């Protein structure tokens, strides 16, 4: 029997902004019968979250240190403890509250079987003008993750990174300064180059790891290609993504208020109303 999908909404503050409330209301509207949980720091309460229907959502707590900054959040989503909280489900949909979902396509996207899928990036994370091509998938703010596949990566006993990757982390230093730090690099490579020290070694956004490096630990870990990911979600330059997606709405959009809000509101939101 296929396991369910959990929709996980990261939160970290006592009160939501107006647009965050809109995003949450849309999530509750589109997924009336889905399991929705808030990922929250220990001690956070929802007294300021005056959104109808919120009472059906559950709270899953993690250490407060994970929510103090972006680095803490990245560390959380690169930890096995996070994914083991959700093993009752087959997939988890990360839905940050700058996301917007247009329709319930979860069954469709889960049936595709990818380990990971998020909104595609333009080359080198650029904003995506007409001369920049789609590059890789994808952004973690609105992303679908196959729980067992993530745990399998994080349980791997392989070395996470080749030595040249660790060496590259010291690019800001000159050659001789790098040599002075060589003992530290060797310790990192031989003794700390494992998933227990993943964020310490990686030091970048967690979605970059899942998009580019996870498959090096487990060959079976699959990431959707950019064209498939485009139908899943938009992010920066939604107007161009809409054109590339043959003027069809995706499943959802991330950072909808950040990139070309007039286009999102007048075209994407209005098309959502027409299509429904």
Q: Can you tag this structure with a few keywords?
A:
276 residues; alpha/beta; Spore Coat Polysaccharide Biosynthesis Protein SpsA, Chain A; six-stranded mixed β-sheet; three-stranded mixed β-sheet; 14 helices; 9 strands; 20% strand
Number of strands: 9
What is the correct CATH architecture?
Alpha-Beta Complex
What would CATH call the class?
Alpha Beta
Q: Percent range for helical residues?
A: 25-40%
| Total separate domains | 1
CATH-assigned fold name: Spore Coat Polysaccharide Biosynthesis Protein SpsA, Chain A
At a glance:
This protein has a six-stranded mixed β-sheet. A three-stranded mixed β-sheet has the order 5-9-8. It is globular and about 60 Å long.
Structure, described:
The structure is a single chain. The longest helix has 15 residues, at 261-275. This protein has 14 helices and nine strands. The protein has one domain (4-157, 221-275): Spore Coat Polysaccharide Biosynthesis Protein SpsA, Chain A (Alpha-Beta Complex), CATH 3.90.550. Helix content is 38%, strand content 20%. The strands form two sheets. The chain has a six-stranded mixed β-sheet with strand order 3-2-1-4-7-6. It has a three-stranded mixed β-sheet with strand order 5-9-8.
